[in-house]
Amino acid sequence: MRPRFWETVPLAEMTTEEWEAVCDGCGKCCLNKLEDEETGEIAFTRVACRLFDDATCRCTNYAERKRLVPECVVLTLRSLPEISSWMPRSCAYRRLNEGRGLPAWHHLVAGDPDAIHRAGESVQRRTVSEAVVPLDDWEDHIIDEEI
Fold first, then answer.
1. Whole-angstrom Cα distance, residue 26 to residue 88?
2. pLDDT at 98 (0 to 100)
3. N or C: where does the chain have the smaller number of CB atoms within 10 Å of the terminal CB?
4. Whole-prediction pTM
5. Average pLDDT in the 76-84 region?
6. pLDDT tens-digit profile of 96-140?
7. CB-based contacts of 104: which residues, under 8 Å, 6+ apart?
8. Which long-range contacts (CB under 8 A, 24 or more apart) does 116-123 make?
9. For the residues 72-86, what does the mean pLDDT come to?
């Protein structure tokens, strides 16, 4: 990877390795969201995808996620504009796409993949699996804090 590539290389020109490295590992994109049909407002829940590992904030089968979870949204340069409202404001891809740069707790800036967890910016150990929460109960798990 190029040094500090995220500061000079547009998302569209990043290598696959650089694109993947931009992920901050927060786990917020793996949370199920509810959309108010009338207002379009998005509410994050603490109900995570069944493939989400709450301890590591990573997918347990990243390579096969789309096959195993057909509703999984794969983030690409093409899909980013249409799903950015569903992405947390802190998302590194969304931040770079909006010209906001990466925060100090991002692993590329801090040099430490656990900095995000210490900063409280991830959902580590704060989720419940969709495998144990019926869809009708997801509203009971809406997160009030800003995501």
1. 10
2. 94
3. N
4. 0.91
5. 89
6. 999 999 999 999 999 999 999 999 999 999 999 999 999 999 999
7. 110, 115, 119
8. 116/24, 116/25, 116/26, 117/57, 121/24, 121/26, 121/90, 122/24, 122/25, 122/26, 122/27, 122/28, 122/57, 123/26, 123/27, 123/28, 123/30, 123/31, 123/46, 123/48, 123/54, 123/57
9. 88
H or E stretch at 81? helix 80-83
Cβ-based neighbour number of residue 145 at 10 Å: 6
Give the start-to-end residue ranges of the domains of the chain. Answer: 5-141
Q: What angle do CA 123, 127, 129 make, to 5 degrees?
A: 135
**E strands along 10-105, which residues?**
31-35, 42-48, 52-53, 58-59
CA–CA dist 45, 137 (Å, integer)? 10
Q: How far is CA 73 from CA 99, 100, 109, in A?
A: 23, 23, 26
For tokens 């490295």, the residue is: 21
pLDDT, one tens digit per residue, over 129-140 is 999 999 999 999
Write down the residue that tokens 């340069």 correspond to.
77
Nearest CA among 113, 114, 118, 99 for reference residue 6: 99
